[in-house]
Amino acid sequence: MPARSLRAPTPSPGALHTAFLTVKDAAEYLGLSPHTLYVWRHRRQGPPSFRMGPRGRVMYRLEALDAWVREQEQADSRSNAALNPLNAPRQEPSTRLTSA
């Protein structure tokens, strides 16, 4: 059995490229239009983004997009059983004492 190297594997150039996505690529990845991402960025909504390089190109981290999607799923009652009102324990109606 050959000895295993303790060094981390060197990522391929393609893997480095996909770690950061442009607005167009991020929109395609999320199934949205680039305009939607621009509007969300302007309103400080949507997935986190940042400006990169001397031209200030808007970029998205692939891992941040995945995390944002998971947050959206957890915030939706259809994906999170704990938020589904149909799963909430039934509350007994309170009995009011009426004075005559």
Strand order of the largest sheet: 1-3-2
Q: Let me know the number of strands.
A: 3
**Relative helix content:** 25-40%
Low-confidence stretches: 7-16
List the helices and strands in order. HEHHEEH
Q: Overall mean pLDDT score?
A: 80
Alpha-beta classification: alpha+beta
Shape: elongated
Tell me the span between the first and last alpha carbons: 91 Å
How much of the sequence is in beta strands? 5-15%
Structure annotation, total helices: 4
Sheet with the most strands, sense and barrel status: 3 strands, antiparallel
Q: From the alpha-carbon coordinates, what is the Rg to the nearest angstrom? A: 23 Å
Task: Tell me what the structure shows.
By secondary structure, the protein is an alpha+beta fold. It is built from four helices and three strands. The protein has helices at 13-18, 23-30, 34-42, 62-75; strands at 20-22, 50-52, 57-61. It has a three-stranded antiparallel β-sheet with strand order 1-3-2. It starts with 12 loop residues before the first helix and ends in a 25-residue tail after the last helix.
